[in-house]
Amino acid sequence: MADEARASLEKSRLEVMECEAEIKSLKEALKSLALGAGAGEGSSPNRLEVAVRAAKPADAGTGGEGVSFKVHLSSPIEERDLARVRDPLDPAAEGSVAAFESIETANALLTVEVYSQDGSKVGSSAPHDLLPLCQDVELWRKGGEKKASTLEVAIVEDKGVDGHIGEVEAVPVAVEEEVKRTESADAFEDAKEEMDESAEGKDAGETKESTDEAASEEFKTPEPEAAQDESKPAELQLPVYTVTLQLEYTPSPDDRRDALYDRLNAVSKRKVAAIDALRKHAGVVNRAKAAEASSVVSSPGKKSAVKPGFLNKAKEETPPPAWKRWYDKTLGPKSMLWMVGPVAKNYVIFLGVGLFIHWKGDLLALPPPV
Question: Any idea what the Cα angle at residue 165 is, between residues 159 and 169, rounded to 5°?
């Protein structure tokens, strides 16, 4: 128990130290960013550059030459055309880089479409979240200004209207089911009224119960089992192209500052939790030490190497020499002279003055007149 508490205590202490070091580095990064923003960098928006590094078709015999691409962004809603795959020898060629500015990385989705040489659409990719591709707090903390990442997307063929055939077919099925439910409910009410009119001579309670049971058995609402049986699982679509995208994101100073502040708040909360855990583990360790000490003292079979109270032993006093004892009795601060002298001083002075006046008082008399 004590060993586990000590290990937890050491782990919490190391975590607190790591949090303090990270908080210090984040504050330094924010300070340097504030100094840079004060120099005139605060007005530049963020920027995302997208380029196609490779496009591999599923059928190697067809080849991937001559295809073009269209990059869609959801926030802001924009699209860019890419005429070719990016050439490493000429990375800045026209039509090989799509640039976007003022992007909301928290909400933006990226979609790629592939077109053949004649302009027909080959397929499109699924939307991809840009936040994990653009956010890198460690890079911003170290002073980096641009993040480069690679993303492989699968291009599949579009079927139906904009690739949402399931939603288009589901609408008439739902409408048909609603119409069937409405017709069955109306027929149920009509049959109930007819049976009530034909059974007027019978008892009211028995007629009502039999009418409800008969009508419910005859006109029972059909359940949509047929629609569930006819539903088929979604077909697995194989990609026709595999496109490798090269993304370069340059954040604005505001984006970097917001990301650093979010990380600073998260690390501060982690530090508070680590400090609480450190205090808790320290209390456990102290209680374990006290329990061990009390068990050692209270156990009769064990003898401690050091006897309790060995430091409080009184030393054997040696008698002082004779001259010191004589001095203490006669002239020392605790002698009789110093204890009685201040009290008998006034009496001695009074007695001496009285005897002097009695015996030698003529010396104080005035001389006779001449």
Answer: 150
